[in-house]
Amino acid sequence: MSRKLSLSVFSLFCAVLTALFGMFVGCAKPVQKDIQIFFDNDVHCACKLYPAIATLRDSALKETPHVTVVSAGDFVQGGAVGTLSRGEYVTEIMNQVPYNIVTLGNHEFDYGMTQLKHLVSGLSAQVLACNFSATNGRLFFPAYTVLTYGELKVAFIGALTPTTFTSSTPTNFTDSTGRVIYDFHATDSRELIQNAADEARQKGADYVVVVGHLGDDSAIASSVDILKETRGIDVFFDGHAHHVLNMRLPNADGDSVLLVSTGSQGEKIGQLTLGKNGKMVFRFHETDSIPASPRVMATIETIQKRMEEETSRPVGYNEQTLPDYDENGVRLVRNTETALAQFATDAMREILATDVAVLHGGTLRSKLPQGDLTMGNLIEVFPFNNRAARVEMTGQQLLDAMEVGVVDYPKESGDFMIGSGLRYTINPDIPSSVELDEQELFVRVGERRRIVSMETYDSSSKTWKTIDPEKTYTVGGLDYTLVKYGVSGAFRYAKPIACPDLKDTEILARYISRLGDTIPSAMYPQKVVNNRFRVLK
Asked: Residue 116, SS3?
């Protein structure tokens, strides 16, 4: 071979190498950076979380472009900032973070469907819900979305608790005739979540994350049950139960799935890191240890000024704290009689002028502190914007309704009820015979009853008398409980009667005024002595 030819071959070889090198360099995929997903659940208007989660998000963006912020629901209700604006102030703050993906908690529905649609339309985050539809099966929100982070695709699936129908306001989900027109898929939520996961995998998702408001201890479609019966899910962000979780569970194939939850009230923030090496790491941040984002704090301070005029209105004085939790952090109001419940029910019976009044423990959301009280304190106790209601019912109907409240005793239950002008005794060893329909609404009580005695107070003779099953009683309380099928529809058979148009907080304020602007400790001692709920030992 001639020298000239050899040089030509060598030149060609070098040219090919150069071209190939350029091809590989030009087509090389960018180095995958970590994916950071920040997560919360059940914040319930604890707005201290939002400046903290924004700080974490902003800091992460300095290291990687792959940052997402998600919420597993129950964010617009639970405090004055939600109550006074029917959730709008909260979504305004969330948009400043901003959030990317949310699913809905049962309390997102508390202000009614019209307001929910308004809140969602103003929320910058995408709302996902695979098991919330019209009764014809049409979904109101996308079941899932697939986000691309460099080389990787991550699917997010939204899932609501099927108990939303009864744990929010049941009449929000019916038409004017009482016909149910919304479906939370109590019997097929698992299939809907599995279908969404399968579709996302078919679209190339490398990871599948469920953002659920189900609860790990729910009787219907709990997150634990869903994970054990499904495939193809890598992570489950859960809410609803208010538990702090960081655990792994086997799925239907025996593969390990991460189940996490941040508790409630914005105390913790979850961070999931999906590493470029395929490693998955989850950790908690204590919200109070994180510097506040000036951007979000500016929005909160503006909103606080708007709220101040109403919340700062003085309503009286409280001689001692009326607690909702004991000194060990154990919640009292959902299975124990408290001075707080006594005070609230007395206020309803007095202001609404009824024979008895009832209140379920799930309504009470905060203690009533010692000292000068403002309307803001009352809103913290009653954050749901409920209104006064009065009904008529027979003694037998009242016996039946109160039986619904002790179905789960001694376990905590939002349906647990305390009365004013009414006291009762139960035998917890008797199994509950309460029957519910397919919507988990009260139907009837069977032969055996946990309530073994009930008395009502006769104001004229100032004595307690055994309840008369045939007598008609007037009952005061809140519209959610008495006319909107709350408390599992326990009062669905009662007859609504005329009632003053009062907010729940105004009932409390008027009662404090009648007490001489002071709640006396002698009348409402922290240690309950005037027992209205008794348990046979």
From this structure: helix
Q: How far apart are CA 318 and CA 512, in angstroms?
A: 9
**First-residue to last-residue Cα distance in the chain:** 109
The distance of Cα 292 from the centroid of its chain, to the nearest Å, equals 24
Question: 278's torsion region: left (phi>0), alpha (psi -120 to 50) or beta?
Answer: left
pLDDT, average across residues 381-388: 92
* pLDDT for position 18: 42
The pairing of strands 268-274 and 442-445 is unpaired
Number of neighbouring beta carbons within 10 Å of residue 12: 10
Q: Alpha helices, DSSP H only, in 312-382?
A: 339-352, 375-381
- Render pLDDT for 55-88 as a digit per residue (tens, 0 to 9): 999 999 999 999 999 999 999 998 889 989 999 9
Pairing between β-strand 144-149 and β-strand 133-134 as defined by DSSP bridges: unpaired
484 CB-near residues (< 8 Å, 6+ apart): 169, 170, 171, 172
CA distances from 246 to 102, 133, 238, 518 (A): 20, 31, 10, 46
Please give the torsion angle defined by the CA atoms of residues 113, 118, 124 and 128, in that order, rounded to the nearest 10 degrees. 20
Q: Are 258 and 235 in contact (CB under 8 A)?
A: yes
Over residues 185-223, the pLDDT tens digits come to 999 999 999 999 999 999 999 999 999 999 999 989 999
Comparing CA positions, the residue from 152, 42, 45 lying closest to residue 102 is 42
Give the fold, CATH level 3, of 35-300. Answer: Purple Acid Phosphatase; chain A, domain 2 (3.60.21)
> Can 35-300 and 313-535 be said to share one CATH topology?
no
Cα gap 34→63, rounded to integer Å:
9
Q: Which fold has domain 313-535?
A: 5'-nucleotidase;  domain 2 (3.90.780)
Look up residue 185 and give its two tokens. 């898929």
Given this model, what pLDDT does residue 483 score?
94
Q: How many helices (H) and strands (E) does the chain have?
A: 15, 28
Burial 149-177 (b: 16+ CB within 10 A, else e): bbebbbbbbbbbbbbbbbbbbbbbbbeee
Q: Which residue's structure tokens are 């148009």?
A: 501
For residue 386, the one-letter residue type is N
Amino acid at 73: G
Domain ranges, ordered by start, for the chain? 35-300, 313-535
Which has the closest alpha carbon to 317: 366, 369, 364, 367? 369
Q: Could you tell me the pTM of the whole model?
A: 0.76
Three-state SS for 256-312 is: EEEEEEECCCCCEEEEEEECCCCCEEEEEEEHHHCCCCHHHHHHHHHHHHHHHHHHC
The CA-based angle 426-432-436, given to 5 degrees, is: 130
List the one residue out of 98, 90, 503, 77 whose CA is nearest residue 304.
90
* Mean per-residue pLDDT over the chain, rounded: 92
